[in-house]
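Researcher: Please translate sequence to structure tokens.
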Amino acid sequence: MKITYKGNLLIGFGVSLLILLVSSVASYVSIQNLLKNSALVDQTNEVIFEMEQVVASLVDAESGQRGFLLTQDVR
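Model: Translation complete:
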């Protein structure tokens, strides 16, 4: 079976189209993973911020308690 110039061109075009399709699917999956991971990073940053506020409040409460115990002044 002899493959002609037109046959070679069609095979090349088909292979190129297949590679483009595989590359597109891989890019789509990669972008979806990137978006999911970005959302998780945002959530983690929010949790860290909230925890830092809790720690700051605890430090303020501890300082206030020490001040009261030393001076017995409620102000």
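Researcher: Any highlights?
Model: Residues 5-71 form the longest helix (67 residues).
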